[in-house]
């Protein structure tokens, strides 16, 4: 859990594109924020700035009172899940899960325990020896979630994690992500263009358009107000 303060974030790309303009939001510890809006409105850029994968043109990212602007992505207490899974194809599921921990100088036994615990939580324990190509889409996305879990990050960032799944798996995985959020209590920022996901998962929804925040509110406030 973390308190996240996003203060006047701007992102201008080198070609002059204003991708994000004055993004201001304070996110409380147990929130599940869903960023919605049309393609190109700046959702991914916002997420990538928070993860440290994209330089900020101006503004400040504060997590638990610590200014993170210039921290390397791996020094941020953040885990990111992408839509295309981003698994290492030549490594087993086990090694995919363990990879992020091996750089952290913790013992083999401790890594083993964390990997197996995450695998149990996500019901992928029997798949630990497989390679990503031997998994279904839903299983791959679980491994991607598992990589986020083993990091024990305080903040989860998810960029359209369900968009490559079929309708049934989307439904199942959506419920699982909500359950995980309740269990791990990691503050979550989730990008989607799917209204159902926003309605069912969010504590608050942020609606973006042309790089600007248009509206912030609970699902009820955003979608059900007359
Ligand atoms: P979304 O995630 O909402 O679809 P993005 O954050 O990916 O939107 O993109 C916001 C805007 O910034 C878009 O107009 C996109 O074309 C532009 N953009 C994204 N990445 C780059 C880049 N590397 N260079 C220039 N423009 C970019
Ligand atoms: P889905 O239809 O759910 O996307 P697949 O048809 O790809 O899944 O696979 C069905 C089942 O077979 C899954 O449980 C998957 O783990 C398993 N499977 C797929 N490919 C392989 C493989 N190369 N080796 C072993 N098991 C596999």
TrEMBL record:
GO terms for cellular component: ATP-binding cassette (ABC) transporter complex, substrate-binding subunit-containing. Keywords: ATP-binding, Nucleotide-binding, Transport. GO terms for biological process: carbohydrate transport. GO terms for molecular function: ABC-type transporter activity; ATP binding; ATP hydrolysis activity. Residues 4-226 form the ABC transporter domain. This is ABC transporter domain-containing protein. The chain holds residues 1 to 226 of 383 of the full protein.
